[in-house]
Design goal:
The complex is a heterotrimer.
Chain A: H1 5-25, H2 39-66, H3 69-100, H4 109-130, H5 135-159, H6 175-219
Helix pairs in contact in A: 1-6, 2-3, 2-5, 2-6, 3-4, 3-6, 4-5
Chain B: H1 2-43, H2 71-121
Chain C: H1 2-20, H2 22-42, E1 43-44, E2 47-48, H3 52-78, H4 81-87, H5 92-122, H6 130-155, H7 161-188, H8 194-223
Antiparallel strand pairs in C: 1-2
Helix pairs in contact in C: 1-5, 2-3, 2-5, 3-5, 3-6, 3-7, 5-6, 5-8, 6-7, 6-8, 7-8
Classes of the chains: A mainly alpha, B mainly alpha, C mainly alpha.
Amino acid sequence: MNRSYPFLVLAAVGLFATAPVLIDLAPYESTMGLVQKIFYYHVPSAMVMFLSALVCGVASALYLFRKNTAADRWASSAAELTVVFGLIVLVTGPLWARKAWGVWWQWDARLTSTLLMWMIFAAYLLVRRFGGPGAEKLAAAMAVFGMANVPFVYVSVNIWRTIHPTTRVVPTLAPGMRGVFWFAVLAFMVLLALLLPLRARLGARREELEELYLMGDEGE
Amino acid sequence: MAETGSEVNVMLLLRREWGSVVRVVVGVLVVLALAVPVATQATQPPPGGAPPAQEEFVPVKDLPHQEQLPGGPLVLAAYGFVWAVLLVYLWTIWRRLGKVEREMRALSERLKGQQRRIEGRM
Amino acid sequence: MFFRVAWLVMRKDLTVEVRSREILYTTAFFAVACVLVFSFALVKEGRPLEDAAAGILWIAVAFAGTLALGRTFERERHSETLRALMLAPSPRAAVYVGKLLGIVLLLLVVEAALVPLIGLLFNVPILARPLLLAGLLAAGTVGFAAVGTLFAAMLVRARSRDVLLPVLLYPITIPVVIGGVRGTAALFELPPSSEMAGMWMALLLFFDVVFVTLSLWTFEPLMTE
């Protein structure tokens, strides 16, 4: 939350305003047609979800081993954003699959492990909310184990034969699609850079409030 | 687990091939269905000019091409969902921040009042 | 020192268990009840669905394991013995290893009763590749119990520990359950496919290494108040 924040907001608004136009102008895919355009927000949200999970895991490890409370704040913010972006991934994916594969859901390695990862971070939020005193540490352990799951999810699609497009699709994108795709990735990354400090600020304010309450108790 | 992918692909291929066969069958059925009333009309005029009631449903394996799921609504639904989730999330953060800050202001007012009372007593 | 502490903690748990046999009997009965409940769900017109036997076996192991973990640490909590163990001048990771070994042994005993029952009820060839089947069960049990022991130990202080243990445990250990079910299903096929089972066994071992390392690494800071 520093001086660059308003510029980030402006950038995000600009990016998200232009993205639909660019997506509309991008060429159609040969076999899937119009529905392939979901790709331009499905994959960037997935990337942001993974990044956010990674942030949560690293911050949780820092909290566990260094007892850094600021790291804990960032970890809980990142976990919440992982769940939010994961929700986008898990809803836009089936909408695409309905047309491309003819089914909403397919029990293949990629989909299953993404759902699993989303559940781990949802459990993180549940523990923090209902675990009572000491829940921060429990949640931090959950995040460290969840982070260990991330590389597993990433490579799973290349090891097992699945019908989900592999990660090789992205580096081999056609020129007309490549620009639009990376534009969308940039938009989502900026959004993450915006939301993460905002949510961390909420955590910081809550801690301040708690301290104020303690002071009040001592005063009486 | 590994087989399901290829199985589905084969199914899709089969379905595509079946699709063309089915389309021809449906076309023939439609022509027949149109021809039968014309043929019967000549001998027996319908009462009140109402269309004849459908006497049987003809099952087909697959939908004709023009009735298959269009991609447009799916893309729009996905796009709308992204916006809805992000806006709702922003709104919840804004609301939670507002609540915490309101509580903080009320609390600091109370603390100041307490301090004044303590100073007044001294 | 490390292994001696681990050995002593395990022996203590087993001695308590051998005297009362409470956890063993209740867990084993619960596992059998699970098998029956899932049999009713997955048997259609007298014939089980494909791979139902492997699935039911691992569901029973996972559910019974959760129950055993909860009871074992409830016992420690009741008499504040876990705190005493933590206060003792011994490496905490050794305490973890001791508890883990105790739970793995208990679950292996339950599985030894469960597997013949599954073989009998579903008519699957449990003796076709006995070593591979035992290896899959042992590797899966270690992976499941490694995470389970860590979280159950942490949850001793938490308020709603009964609900939170499965909430935390299942999402993390599902890779282990997948590996166990697929590997066992490959062995229960006719003819059994050792190659597939071996691949899943390798995956299970990989997860065991990751989970045990992470648990040993985080147990110390997690149990510090």
